Structure formats: C-alpha cells, structure tokens
C-alpha cells in the first residue's frame, strides 16, 4: 500500500513539476517485487500442500465423502487463523503464510484420529450416531493432550524480545490458532458430518492386512526382554551420538535471494569529486555499457552509483534475469570493480534483513588509546582474514591509512583562559567554524526549529586561522592566536564505540560458510595475530551478526530446554503419570536426528546454489517439531493404558494400541509431511526463508514415526514377563 502511494506521487511529480523542469524521477530499487513474488510462491505451495494432503487422505480412506469431511478441516481452521491474526493486529506476510502452509497438514491430525476411530466403531457394527459419539469420546483425552502440547511448545519462544521472538510470533500465532480450531472442528463438526453423510453400518478398511502385518512384526521385534533392551539402548543412545556428529554449524538469518546487487569501493583518501567522476565512476560506467546495451549475455535492468565523504563510493544494480544475479556478482568482483589504482571494491547480493545485526556481517571492533597501533593491528587482521577466509569481503571502517588531509587545532590553554574561555567553549567555536554548533531549539507555537550557529565559509587553513572572534574579556582574537593550526593527515572519519577510539573490520563471509564456522576461524586464527599487534590497553570485541548469533543461540537453547520441561509437565498432568510422560519425551531425540539428517541432505542437494544453512528460522523448526512428534506417542501410550485399565494384559494392551492407532498415526504423519513437502522441495522467491524449517519438520516427523513404533512398544512392554508371572499367583492366593 505504501509503495502504491509512492508510485502515484512519483507519477504525479513526473507529470507536473518535474516535467516543467525537464527532469524525470525513476524508481530503480523495489523490495516489493521480491516480497510479492515470495508471497505468491508460498501461496502456491500452500494450495499444492492442501491438494497433496487430501490425496494422501483419499489413499488411506478410499471414500470420497470421508475424505471430504476431513478435508473440510483445512478451510475452517485457516479461516479461524485469519480471524485470530486480524484480532491480534497481524498482517499476511511471508512468515505468516508459511505458518498457514505448515498448519495445512497439522490441522488434519485431530480430524483423522476422530474419523478413524468412528470408522472403527462403524466396522464393529455400531450405528452412525452411536459410532460418532463413542468414537469421539474415546480419543478426546489424547486429542486434548496432543493439541495442548502443540500450542504450549510455542510459548517459550513467542515471548523472546530479540529477532527470534519477532520472527517467530507470526508463525506461532498462525499455527496455534489453526491447531486449536482443528480440535474444536474434530470434536464438533466432524462427528455430526460423519453420522449424517457417511452411509452404511460397516465400513471396510482395504488396508487392514497391512496394519495387521505391521503390528505382528512390531510385536515380534519386541517379544523378548533382550530385544527390547537392545532397541531401547540403540534408539536412545544413537540419537545423541548422531546429533554430535552431524549437527551443522549455526547461521543467523537467511540472506534472501533478492534481485539486487550491492557494492562499495574504497577510493584513495582525498579523492575529489571531479577526479572521482573522471577516474572512478567514468571507468565503471564504460565497463558497464556492454551489460546495459545487450552486447553481453549478462544484462542489467538499471544501476546507480554515488559517493559520500567517509563512506566511499557505492554502487547498486538490478539484473534483467533474476537467475543471473550470482553470475553478475562474479563479473562485478572480477572485472567491473577491479584494476582501478589504489581502489578496493567488492559486490554481493543485498541482504533481505538489513541493519548491523541483520546481514551476514561480523564486526571486529579494535579499540586502543593510540590510533596508530589500531592501524597496525587492523592491517594485520585485514590480511589474515583475507588469507584464512578466501572469498570473504573485509571492509575497514575507517580506512587502514592516515592519508586523509586533516587540520588539527591544538588549543593554547593559557591564552584561552586569559580571554575568559575554557576548552569546552573553544570547542563550540570550532564546531561553528565547521558544520555548525547546535545551541538549542526554538518553538514558534506550531513547530520546533534547531538553532545552529555557523560561521562564514572559509577556503584555506590561513583563512581559518585569521577568523576573528569576540571573547568575554572584550578583546577580538583570531583563531590562530587561541590555538595552533597543524596540517597533518588522518583517517577518513573518527569512529568511537562506547566512547573509545575504534577501528572496525566489517567481515562478510562467503555465502556457503555459516556464521558460526566463520566465527570459529576468526577466533582461532585471526584474533591471535591481532592481539599480538595491539598494545596492552587494546581490546577486541565481536559485534554485528557475531553478537546477535551468540545471543540467539543462548535464547534458542534456553527456549528449547524450557519447551521440553513444559511438555513433560503438561503431559504428566494430562496422563497423571510422570512415568508415562517420560516415555513420550523419550521419542524427541529421534526426531531431532531426523531433522538434522534431512537438513544435511537438503544442504547437499543445494550445494551448487549455496546450500542450506541452519539459520535462526531453521532452528525454530526444531522447536515446532517438539510439539508434533509427541502426538503419535501420546496416542499410543494413552490407548495402551486405557486397555490395561479395561483388564487386558500388558502384552495385549500394547498390541491393541499398536493395531488400533497405527492407521491414524500413519495418516496424520503422511498428511503433515506431504502438506509441507512443497515448502521443502519447490524452489522460488522466498523459499530460502522456510525451506530449512520444512526440511527439519519433514525429516524429524518421518524418522520419529518410524522408530517410535518400535521404541514405545519396547518401553511399554518393560517388565512384561514379571507382570505375567505375578497375575496367576495373585489369582491362586
């Protein structure tokens, strides 16, 4: 909306004021292109995921009306999510739409469990109304537990105040609202629809033999204490070992694949405007001609250049073909920005998340009292980074040379005191001779105005020294009489951080290298050389993305641990058993391994395109995974304990739980996985934001489901032989 208004205003200016002045205003940078393409992409993935999930449902049920009843949960739950988002003041963006896409498969879980149990009652010969009522009541407790755990898992992260919380909040609100609505739909709308729309007393399950075969094999694999202990040992210890071996290095935020190239050049100090136009910008303009007139296969739609004191020369451009951005960046770095005497240039893709903490930038802040020692240490660090991190971009702020013309005023304290001033007052006068000294504000009843004192313009150091000033003593003195004017050379700017003189090395690692890996290299190989060149009072601080990543890893680790505690306590309260809750929690390590393996495979498949890093959004996928993988375990444990309370033996209760819950577990898992597959597999604008998250959830759910069906029966059947011996002896007595 904002950009539409801006375009309308620009069109109006071009048609009126600018047209009369013979000028034209053109927009050459527009982030809304990427945003709109990303939203379109995730919307298409959402629709495709819905179609795949419904297709999986039909394969299991093989009944059109039954499939339609469950599928109705998707629009009803998404509509509820829209209402909650609107009430919470949230907007539809890439993250919230991705949340809706993730929720597509998740909202079917409760409906699948209810309908499957209703089917089972109908297969037992009960009427439609009786089957709907009994089938819903039997699974109500397990559904409440699984829904509560899915929603509760978001609580520790959604209240974070850093970037993780800001990114996660839209996702958490969207998924929580949809999942909560799915429970209501499953226990209200679905039983009524099943009783009235599905005709016939008995409903045949054409996959019945598959479930019986699988159940028999699971019981056979866990039939002896030795087998059970082996499964438990392997499936609880192996995940921790695999996590330690396979865990990828952490990144901060995804770069984003915007169609925009951003570059900078550090020109020789003291380079004038006209010289810069002739020897720098003119050269680059000539080199870019073939990329604008169609002579080169790699073409630009437009580009711009500019220059600013202390910042250097900057350049930006948009590729005609978005798929050629990486190739054009290579051309910029190898041809366009090289070969210019005493000039350092570098180009990269503009990051989606801007700011000091948003981009992939490690700021190495060197601080010391002596700026000359900072320069020495900065040079040592600069060349060491280029050696150990090839392909990285290192930008010193300010430059590494004292080559900028500088006028230094050394105050004559005695003379200043004689005329009734002090250093502070003298500093104000010097500021007035430069850009101006701020004196205060003036309010005219409507607006506030800054009051700035600025002297007449001067052009030479001699003119500056001869500027007269009126002093409190009544004398007219020149600046040269109150301070000594020294011609020297200095940095392009005076940079201070926390009031300390600072030289910063802004390091941007290669896209294929995770920030955590780059930080380890900097700490182990760069910092020792820099410390060796610093004086004793020198310090080094890592800021920018390095600081943000450390904070994010601490907060995410804490949130992950707190989420597990919340899950354990919540399931314990619902089951009224700490032991059964622990059985459910023991399935989490396998899900984590599955997520990591899936992430590694996606990274391997995308090696040519920069890979898939374990960034902050991907880490959020592990938190979401916690609330999903326990649902299957809750269904199994809940049914097994119910069967034992009904008088079944431990073995029969476990067998009944596996046989009765195998179909809904596989149905809900496969619908969730297929609903998220488009987010994981289909490339396009914005897919880099949620692809890692989808990979973690899909891999984690798949691996966890497969091994949960072996681990949980092994755990539930512990001490089975002892129980079978104790029961007859009790009866005899």
3D structure, described in words:
- This protein is of the alpha+beta class and 733 residues long.
- The protein has three domains: 31-252 and 577-732, Multidrug efflux transporter AcrB transmembrane domain (Multidrug efflux transporter AcrB transmembrane fold, Up-down Bundle), CATH 1.20.1640; 259-349, Alpha-Beta Plaits (2-Layer Sandwich), CATH 3.30.70.1430; 404-490, 2-Layer Sandwich (Multidrug efflux transporter AcrB TolC docking domain, DN and DC subdomains).
- 62% of the residues lie in helices and 13% in strands.
- The chain contains 27 helices and 15 strands.
- The strands form five sheets. Strands 5, 6, 13, 14 and 15 form a five-stranded antiparallel sheet that branches.
- The longest helix has 35 residues, at 163-197.
- The radius of gyration is 34 Å and the shape is elongated.
Give descriptors for this structure.
733 residues; alpha+beta; Multidrug efflux transporter AcrB transmembrane fold; Alpha-Beta Plaits; Multidrug efflux transporter AcrB TolC docking domain, DN and DC subdomains; 3 domains; 5-stranded antiparallel sheet; 4-stranded antiparallel sheet; 27 helices; elongated
Q: Determine the CATH topology of the largest domain.
A: Multidrug efflux transporter AcrB transmembrane fold
The helix fraction, in percent, is 55-70%
The CATH superfamily title of the largest domain = Multidrug efflux transporter AcrB transmembrane domain
What fraction of the residues are assigned to beta strands by DSSP? 5-15%
Low-confidence stretches: 727-733
- What is the correct CATH architecture of the largest domain? Up-down Bundle
- Radius of gyration, whole Å: 34 Å
User: Care to count the β-strands?
Assistant: 15
Tally of distinct domains? 3
Instruction: Look at the helices and sheets and give the structural class.
Output: alpha+beta
Outline type: elongated
Q: What is the name of the CATH class of the largest domain?
A: Mainly Alpha
Largest sheet: 5 strands, antiparallel
Q: Calculate the mean pLDDT score and round it.
A: 83
How many individual helices? 27
CA(first)-CA(last) distance:
81 Å
